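This protein record is not my work; I was only asked to verify it. Take the sequence as given and treat only the tokens as open to question. I have pasted the whole thing underneath without changing anything:
***
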Amino acid sequence: MKKEFLFIALAALALAGCQSEGNNKPETDMPEWYYTGGKLGTTTTTSSMAFRQPTPATDDAGLGTMFAQGDNIAEKDFVTNASGRQHGLGPVYVRASCQHCHPNYSHGTSVPTGTYNAKDQGNGTLLVVINPATQAYVPWLAGMPQLFGARPFKAPLDPDQITVQWLTANDEHGNTFPDGETYELRYPEVTMPNTAVYVYNQGYRDPDGLLESQGYKVLLENTIGVYGTGLLDAIPDQDIIDQYAKEAADGKLKNGLNPAMWDGSGIAQGGYYKNDPQWGPKRFTYALSRGPLMDAAGANAIWNITNVTRSDRKYHYLDLNGTIYAEYASKDKEVQEGFAEYIAQIDPNNEHPEWRTEDMEANIKEFLTSKTLPAEMSDDEFTQVMVWHRGLAVPAARNVTDKQVLRGKELFSQIGCDYCHRPSWTTGPDEVRDPNNFPVTAQMPRYPNQKIWPYTDMVQHKLHMENDIRTGWCRTTPLWGRGLHRQATGDIYEARMHDTRARNVIEAIMWHGYSKESDAYYPTQQFYNLPKEDRDAIVAFIDAI
């Protein structure tokens, strides 16, 4: 009873915090682009709490308490306990909470030169370890490699052995505008010795030889803000398909469209994760690997980042192969010595005798690869998380009557930035869908028939940058709210682009035109040749939206 009362009190406190900025309703008599999330999805809050506010639709539907409960789950660390509030962290995991990667629900902060600092709050820059010849993830790590282990298990990667250096690239203009103003183009280079890889230290040898020769490549990939995703989920499938068809017909893109997403006449079958045409075009992640929000990045991350199981995912997120970590952890003498104590906590009622045989190696392997693990997150808790996730508002645009901002808005369109950073979409009836058929869709906030302003075409493009994103294909990142990142997180930089390489808007724009093969080369050259006052106006506009 005391535990239940404490939880209700915490939820009420979180809700009060969410609503402390006023009634959260958009102002009246403003231009339509002020309402970035439409009138059902926009908050007027522009403080450090800007990305944490519930949408008006969430409050109007009476979902405020559930939103606060979900917010509480997202904010607090999961723990390795086998019972109690937010238990179940591990046996290996990437981070302990949503807040670790999404400080104040913004995108992650920039990584400084030096040690990777995985434990730093706000470090949302994840590691991507690939075969450079194929661009595929290596089989001996997960797509998002785990950096921590719950005793007696050990982390698949030791983050303390990983270092990041920031190097400088020079474009065809020598990083100098015609009027003499200079800019820098930096990019990260990651060093990871093979001794940082747990299974290598346990004797595993990669059949392709990448691990022994250190022939793999390590990239950085930063998290995106989690606000506004419910609004993107509400865009009709057909409108996104029409956008693909338009860009395919225009022929303006040097690299065309990703064949894994578009087969020339419609949404491609096969390709990335569950690319089932039944669920329409992909919407989420840089790789467009996820479809409807109920099965997208947030629904996935609350499981695979923490390895907290639930009723629809009763298994662990391990390496890409699925068995390599389990095989080598099961042979580890220190893991064997501590496993009996660990499993006694995980399975106190001895419901899984297959984890307690006389063969300790088999016990460990059976546990790590089991598909019938007990659910550690309840269905109610997952519902609360998804109400929160779908209910996060987008901050209203700022300075919408400022002459410099208005001039920047005009130029943004004039030089062609709005081709990929499409300003607005209109949501449909917003029928919430879930490929996993999880029984929570009826309780989600909805955003029917809203004109929203995310500044993305929801399509992937290539920029051909130094140390580029995996595969080179990257979804056009929504620009809404990103100008508030430093205010929300305390980051010293704006941390723009997929790996935080751009410290400000100018650097982000000029990276778009670094290569003549970039899909954005022409608009970038237009920007480059503008007088300084016009460049500054575009920067002011981008910061305002």
